[in-house]
Design brief:
It is a single chain. The strands form five sheets. A six-stranded mixed beta sheet has the order 8-7-9-5-10-11, sandwiched between helices. A four-stranded antiparallel beta sheet has the order 14-15-16-17, covered by helices on one side. Strands 2-1-3 form a three-stranded antiparallel beta sheet. It has two domains: 236 residues, no CATH class; 288 residues, Alkaline Phosphatase, subunit A (3-Layer(aba) Sandwich), CATH 3.40.720. The chain is built from 20 helices and 17 strands. The termini are far apart. A hairpin with a 2-residue loop joins strand 15 and strand 16.
């Protein structure tokens, strides 16, 4: 049997009662530590008000659950399995030690950040071990720490002592034999496993991805407050495999500012022109699928799968070489809205995700725009709602706001066509000028279309191409609806994909094809001519500076990208498994960080079969120099948290 004081419970169920009781107590302790962390560093969080603090406490529970499940995974396993010796005193003492030691470490890590946060302005991450790996004076450092912060050490001892005393209130007794013992244990263990999976992921929905530090944005008003929401064990565990950038010093500051400045200054004395802006991000719309961008394919016979987008491109402005800055949906939003590419890993999953950043919606919000983001998935999916809030979107419209499950596709969210009609109606209610962002979802695995559209769109050799046709038709219906609105003629539309996908055409079965997407600027108003195709490289991170300069934005701003409309040689850089790929003019250049590996000229070699690296030393040196300029700006600004103009 198990008892708490004089209360007796069945032995098998008592073990699970113990786990739930202890877990609840740990959640209380972690909430207490969160409150302590805030008040200890209160001067660093002057903008936190009462409602936001309550939101932080509520949101923090989700991160505490995940962290505590990770920390107590061994304890839960040892306590849950139906060992024959389960109720023996020696076994329960071992399990108690496991529980106390692991949770003492978790408490200690949280307390350390009470003191360490003012120096880093972020929770400690998995790079802590690398930062101190070469220190030989651990003993001296520890002694000095204990002496300087004796009160924190005392607080730690008191908390651990309380944890031990609370554990000792529970006494596990019982018999571990018979079929009933094993049957009940098996059922309870399966239930615990189910709860464990949901807890560490942050939910059980198909669209739910394991929560990361960036999800804390759902509960705060500015990125700096995310450190209150998360806890230190979670921050460390979620970044153990994260990439730590190295500081680079290839160039002087003067050289960086002259050759690749990331601080953009107004170049036009014209007045700010606050036009509406709508950014439409289309899931998996690789450039390969767009007929208008592949007129030289298959002797000019290639039609593609996007007839409406093709017709729009004929009256819009685009570019010969257009690329995504990553290969995942999660890479797209920071690239498009904040001008920050993913180099090696998604920015929102990196240890730098809590850096202070700028964003297109935030900059325009500050200029009097209303801002809204639309995505038909369940709210919270992919962490989009968290990012949208931090990026300055006032309103978020997802599956919850759509509130009609008859249009649910059964997996990802609301079908694109009805959701885009909902978006058009919603935009009608926004105060002008407005900035609206949209992310489609139907052209995604398992590549289905609504029943009424089955057989209506060409299937093609790739499964994604039928739903591509469906979403293209949804786009057509959106523009039909938008044309009747008063805001339409005064709106700049930006259309791009989140990333490329599996390819079929030989011209895209190479490095450039892995990132080639459409990037289209369409302005139906007559006061600015915006039609044609420019022979240059443009990438997702160029959208922010291009839009701001189109509006004659009057203030300096930060962005790694370029203004696509200017007559300058842009370049685009991506990183996959440590290999850098740079797109410059018609060239595709790869580099391992130390030396160039390959160079192809898409103009004369569209299938990338002839490696010309080494044939022109001056050209190779130019490409390597541009790559290193980018790397130094990117690395050092990430490390120093310098992603703003000041």
């Amino acid at each position: 049997m198990a008892r708490l004081g004089s209360k007796r419970i069945n032995g098998v169920l008592g073990v699970f009662y113990l786990q739930f009781a202890l877990f609840f107590i740990l959640l209380v302790i972690y909430s207490f530590l969160r409150i302590g962390f805030y008040f200890y560093n209160k001067a660093l969080f002057p903008q936190v008000d009462g409602p936001e603090f309550l939101s932080i406490l509520w949101g923090g529970v989700k991160f505490d659950i995940a962290a505590l499940l990770y920390i107590n995974a061994l304890y839960i396993l040892l306590q849950s399995l139906p060992w024959p010796w389960k109720f023996s005193k020696w076994w329960q003492k071992i399990i108690k030690v496991v529980f106390v030691v692991f949770n003492a470490i978790g408490i200690a890590l949280n307390l350390v950040d009470f003191l360490y946060y003012p120096f880093t302005l972020k929770r400690t991450t998995g790079t802590l071990f690398a930062q101190f790996a070469n220190e030989s004076n651990w003993g001296t450092l520890a002694l000095n720490f204990f002496m300087d912060y004796w009160f924190m050490v005392l607080f730690f001892i008191v908390l651990v002592w309380c944890l031990v005393k609370i554990y000792d209130l529970f006494i596990i007794l019982g018999e571990s034999k018979g079929w009933r013992y094993y049957f009940i244990h098996t059922l309870a263990t399966v239930f615990i496993a189910f709860l464990f999976i949901g807890g560490v992921r942050g939910g059980w929905a198909h669209s739910t991805r394991p929560i990361t530090i960036s999800n804390a944005g759902d509960y705060v008003s500015v990125p700096e407050h995310m450190s209150i929401v998360v806890n230190t064990p979670f921050s460390i565990l979620r970044t153990l495999k994260a990439t730590q950038l190295e500081k680079l010093s290839y160039f002087t500051e003067d050289e960086l500012q002259k050759e690749y400045s990331v601080i953009h200054l107004p170049v036009d004395t014209a007045d700010f022109d606050p036009k509406n802006v709508v950014v439409l991000i289309l899931e998996s719309f690789a450039k390969e699928h767009v007929g208008a961008l592949n007129k030289d394919i298959q002797n000019g016979e290639y039609k593609g799968y996007t007839p409406f987008l093709d017709s729009l491109i004929d009256n819009a402005y685009t570019f010969k070489y257009t690329y995504a800055n990553g290969r995942k949906s999660i890479d797209a939003l920071p690239s498009i809205f904040s001008g920050i590419p993913s180099i090696g890993e998604p920015f929102v999953l990196s240890i730098y995700s809590s850096n202070r950043t700028t964003s297109l919606p935030q900059l325009l919000l500050n200029k009097g725009y209303s801002t809204a983001f639309y995505h038909g998935a369940p709210n919270g999916s992919m962490g989009f709602s968290a990012y949208a809030k931090l990026a300055g979107f006032e309103y978020y419209f997802g599956k919850d706001e759509y509130a009609n499950d008859k249009d649910f596709d059964g997996i990802w969210g609301i079908w694109d066509e009805p959701f885009m009609q909902f978006m058009a109606s919603s935009i009608d209610t926004l105060r002008q000028p407005f900035f609206a962002g949209f992310f489609s979802l139907s052209s995604h695995h398992p590549f289905k279309v609504p029943k009424k559209y089955q057989g209506k769109f060409p299937k093609g050799p790739l499964p994604v191409q039928e739903p591509i046709g469906y979403t293209d038709n949804a786009l057509r219906r959106f523009f039909q609806r938008a044309k009747s609105s008063s805001w339409y003629d005064n709106t700049l539309f930006v259309i791009c994909a989140d990333h490329a996908t599996v390819s079929h055409l030989p011209e895209y079965q190479n490095t450039q094809g892995a990132y080639a997407i459409p990037i289209v600027f369409y302005y139906p108003g007559g006061d600015k001519e915006l039609v044609g195709m420019q022979q240059k490289v443009v990438q997702q991170i160029d959208i922010l500076p291009t839009v701001l300069n189109f509006l004659n934005y009057p203030e300096p701003y930060f962005a790694f990208g370029f203004d696509a409309f200017r007559q300058e040689d842009n370049f685009s850089i991506v990183n996959n498994d440590g290999i850098f790929t740079m797109f410059y003019d018609s060239y595709v250049y790869t580099h391992d960080g130390n030396r160039g590996l390959s160079l192809f000229d898409l103009q004369s070699d569209p299938l990338s079969q002839n490696n010309i690296i080494g044939e022109d030393k001056s050209r190779d040196q130019l490409l390597e120099r541009k790559l290193m300029l980018f790397r130094q700006q990117y690395n050092n600004r990430m490390l120093n948290n310098e992603l703003l103009t000041n």
